[in-house]
Amino acid sequence: MIFMLAGTSDARNLALELQSAGYAVTATVVTESAASSLAEVGLPHLVGRLTADEMASIITEQGYRLVVDASHPFAEEASKNAMAAAEQANVPYIRYERAHEHYTHPLITVVKDYEEAAHLAAEKRGVIMLTTGSKTLATFTKVLHGLDNTRVIARMLPRLDNMEKCEALGVAQRDIVAIQGPFSKELNEALFRQYDVTLMITKESGKVGSVDEKLDAALACGIETILIARPNIKYGQQYSTFEDVLQAVQNTL
Prior knowledge:
Blueprint: E1 2-5, H1 9-20, E2 25-29, H2 32-40, E3 45-47, H3 52-62, E4 66-69, H4 76-89, E5 93-96, E6 108-111, H5 114-124, E7 126-130, H6 137-144, E8 150-156, H7 160-168, E9 176-178, H8 185-194, E10 199-203, H9 211-220, E11 224-228, E12 238-239, H10 242-252
Helix pairs in contact: 3-4, 5-6, 8-9
């Protein structure tokens, strides 16, 4: 039995590959939307944010023999909890990490984290579109809110908790783009032009995370981009293809 951290489209597909190979997989996700996606394809799943201790208890009590972490590249806390849980439960841990993409262009500046991105944006100002989600919205509003010649457009999933967070942080309704992807290059371009965006902030989420479409659209519009690099985590046993994960699982179980 495999305990798997999922929640993204590629994680769901990997879970299906493992299931097709004859392994019993239970995927854990944070949101009801992600759970619905798993239910549609018949994957057993758990819903809710779990601590390391909670994961370890589930793994031990239900007899899981392996942890496969296919969480989002920026779900740093989830990955650290999964590694700690696997160690506590004394089971192996395997990480599936989307392949890294490397971008070099005069209009693209790579930074190490959200805080650096926020402070660099404060230097540049203008109309800033955040495409980094709601989780770190406060990091940006704390630095950018109230600056002269600065408008922050928050693009995020159309969820009630996201709208409540925007209200609490002082993001006006006119500055919220509540929409769910995937986004084509053309749709990204249209949004950038509609809001007269001068700076876009995004994460290096990999090709599956549609970062290419955002960057291509920004470059086509002549817009500067701040690209946040992935967290530097030492995962141990790490693979970037389904084939390598399947082989590692076969070798482990």
